[in-house]
Amino acid sequence: MHDSNHSEWIPNIILGQDYDRRYIDAPIHYDVLENLAVFFGRDMPVHRHAQYLQIHYIDRGELHFHIDDKIYQAQGPALVLTPPSVPHSFLTSQDACGHVLTLHQSLLWQLLKEGLQQDLEQELNQEMCIAFHDLNEEEGVHWRTLVQTLENLRSEWNRDEPAKDLALQTLVRLLLIQISRLTAKETASTTVNNDGLQSFRQFSSLIQEHYREHWPLAYYTRILGLSESRLHQICRRIANRSPKKIIHDHLVQEAKRLLTFSNLASSDICYQLGFSDPAYFSRFFKRHTGITTQQFRQQQR
Question: pTM to 2 decimals?
Fold first, then answer.
């Protein structure tokens, strides 16, 4: 599964570059789930973070997480760990809130170098989902200290105290150890069969290359050699979305990126994304995000 073709078809998102430029080379990035959801959407298409491990924690709400060839569904409180560079996509319900922690893998190596058990490396290098409802009483005690560590990370991140970096790194180490103690309680996942995954990759790859051309769905299915209903079935199973929604989401994501990181006028962004009518582009953006391009820009500022 972990083949070298991953990088060719999956966008690599670097939070310090694509989202929060104050932390361009930071080994630790923290944010609350709700802020990231405003920017990237609750329904996040397949992507990866090369060299970064990611931890999602939700207090409440539902989580539908697809990591590599596994699908996890959990009800909060729950935690998901995605190892560095592994492709993943996810959907969180509107009421889901919590923490997202992104860590450079060098932090992990540092931990291991300092004599922590080798099995920690194995545990933190595989995807996992732990749901509070699956834990027994003793594990529940571990869980509460883990949640407290996440809360401490949040308050440390939001304040400017002396030795902030050291405090953050210390809390991150503690968190990783706490997670590894709970790995035995992983939530079961379902595995996607390989043919479907292969077709889904090819579809993602085609969207990445041709989204500006606004191909009709029939064009994609012809190239993929699939019927529309088969592609629909694959996309529903793997990404929990229809093929059309995946294409539209990609366009919306690119529009958000340009609105955030460029000074281009909305009409220029419209043409850059292959739309021919600025009024139609504005309606398209509002239909998919609930706000206008101007409102989105103001929010980001």
Answer: 0.62
